[in-house]
Design a protein that fits this description.
Residues 523-808 form the PgaA membrane beta barrel domain. GO terms for molecular function: poly-beta-1,6-N-acetyl-D-glucosamine transmembrane transporter activity. It comes from Crenobacter cavernae. This is Poly-beta-1,6 N-acetyl-D-glucosamine export porin PgaA. There is one protein chain. By secondary structure, this protein is an alpha+beta fold. The protein folds into 3 domains: 197-251 and 264-296, no CATH class; 252-263 and 297-518, Alpha Horseshoe (Serine Threonine Protein Phosphatase 5, Tetratricopeptide repeat); 522-807, Porin (Beta Barrel). Helices cover 47% and strands 27% of the residues. The protein is built from 29 helices and 18 strands. It has a 16-stranded antiparallel β-barrel. Strands 1-2 form a two-stranded antiparallel ribbon. A hairpin with a 2-residue loop joins β16 (758-774) and β17. α9 packs antiparallel against α10 and α26 runs parallel beside α28 (506-518). The longest helix has 25 residues, at 228-252.
Length: 808
Amino acid sequence: MNSLILNGVAVALLCAALPAHSVPLWKRADYVQAIRSARDGAPASALRILEPLHRAGTLQQPLVDDYLTLLVWAGRDDEAVALAEGRYPAYMLGPGALNILARHQRDRGHYEAAESLYRTSLRKQATASASAGLAMTLAEAGRKSEGMAVLDAATAAGAADALALDRARSYLLAMSDEHTAALTEMQALLARHPDDPELARSYASLLVRIGAPHEAYAYLKQRDIAAPALYNRMLLDKAAIETRWGKSETRLEVGENRFRMTDLALASNEQAGLGLLPGDLAARRTAVADRLVALEQRARYRDAIALHRQHADDAQPRYALAAAASAYLAEEQPLEAIRLSRQAMDGTPRRDVPIDWRITLVYAHLEAEQPDEARAELESLEQDVQRIRYDAPSGQNRFNPAYQQVRLLSAMFDAYVGRTRSARGRLDALLEDAPFNGELRQDDGELELMRGHPRAAADIFGRRLVDDPRAVEAKRGLAAAHLDSHRYADVPLLVADVAALAPESPSTRKLLERWKWSRRPQLVIDAERELSGSRGEGDDGGWGVETRLYSAPIASHWRAFARSYSSRADFVGGGRSRRDTVGLGAEYRGPAWSAEGALTGGRNGGGGFVAATRSFDDRFSAGLRYEHDSDQVPMRARRDGVDGNRLAAEFAYRVDDHRRFDAAVSALDLSDGNLRERIGGSWTERWLVGPSYTLDTVLSVGASRNRGATGVGYFNPRKDGEVGLTVLQEGLLWRRYDASFRHRLGLYAAHYRQEGYGGKPASAAFYEQEWRWASRAGLRYGIAHTVHPYDGDSDVANRLYFNFDWRF
């Protein structure tokens, strides 16, 4: 027994002493048998032989190729890829291993890595299989023309190579958008290889793509070709076709009928997904991508976002990324929409990117408050979309409908950043070419709303609804126009109609939100604090607060309100004055008239006011106001027991959001016999406007006279007048949809002239900030510094103020 053991040891030592090249591992019988087993689906034995060498670092070619191939066959794909990217780089691998790794990367959707591996393989040895794999990889990455070029350049060494290249060509043809040419070429391939099942499957796939799934199914059954995976893919393609039909339906129908075909597509997609094999990764990716598109089209934006996040680590096709970007934008997440839009377009020539994707990117930049980036993308879009384009099916040059779409977007971009006059001119030019185009007419109304012309907008939307009574966006616009022009009684039916027809639309949600808060109570507080001077009236300090609490609307146009007013003044040299009043009133807001009135009372007695304004159109309005025991009586006069009544008339002509003219006359009849009469006017003009900056000027002129009393204890010039210019700058510091933070700087210079004292300069400056944390709530506060002559002496005054406006 001991001798047998010693003999065995001796034999083992002898074998170990033999030169390594005398018995190469890949020629050993046990290894050859292990490789055969691996090809039959059992790679474990071969891996057990190679892994000790791999761990010891002594694995050499051609065993490195075998080892990486076996890892892929054993399902350890990621491990094989990691080794090929590190320990065993691509340059040391053979074509066979490179092709297997490339196919694995392609199946996972890692097209750049797959392309690199295939090209390395071709540099080592130009084979038909590598050319075919590279062509299909490029096609799946959206570069079909490059894939065809690879096949055109490839050569076949024999019949097997020719078949491999033709199969790859048929695969690319099945993805072609030129269906007629693809069918012709596919039939030529079938004539060369009439019995090849792979070509038959590609032909069936092409039939499905052109909208003939039933013909595809019959074709395969007639030839008795088993293709369970293809049948499931046919179901997926059927769902994709239904999604495309559904997209047209969303534009033609209203209400839930818009989504009938899209809902069918979602059901078909779910059914097809259940039948997919676990290992069919490409089909599963397609099912997820198509479902994401259908969910976005169905306006189930949150479901689309959830599906995208669930598969965020998987490679997703470009069209799915674009759909996800649109869903994120609808849910007010523009930064994520920008990222996904860029990702969807990366690597694709700019002119080949679908126009809808690029328009989504423009809006995403706008909503992310990135106007410069939006403008740059829009300019490149205008360069790429020409008025006339070549129509391949007819072989003729035709008008490009996308041209009008892009020019309209460019015009409305100007409006979105405040350049409404420029937008008006550009939109008018488009309307001259297509006066009955629904989209142009819709934006025509939207633009008039931005310019402050709600009645003109209502006329535009109303005429559009005569031509197309089902136009939901026109109903939304008409509701907004009625809100702006105080036609509240006409709003509820429109809002209910819009909510029933398009509840999922972000525009509908905004309209419903606005309508909701317009019917809620409102609190408005105006307060100021005098720090010194108080316009020559001898105040050393003081403050004033006016508070109004409005009820919810009553009978559409009415609101009740409670009002309180408190004011204090401390005078230089001693003395103090105060005023406290409270009151109840009512307000009316209608399309032609607005009015308010209140009865007030306090320690100084009873009072009140009544006012009415007539709006003749979008531009001209005139109003009259009477105040009994007016708050305009100077506080120094009140210290001496003086009160007064005031009558005022106001006129306004608002050309648009860039230009406005105002005029006013008033008379304050004081109880000491004095009559203070004023007249004034102003011209407001906007000179510069941009996404985050505006520059306005206000040219004002005014004059007054006081008669009937002399020697009074308050500032009482016999006659005076003032001409001044205000330069007002506004900057947008931050904004996210309805929330914003702005600041303003106003500089005023004037010449003031008082009878008996001559003329002197006057000046003022103010700085304020305004927070709006929602469309229904805002806070504005600031500081003002004034220098003004009174009885020949210039007086300096400083004032703090704030305004709070809240609907609750």
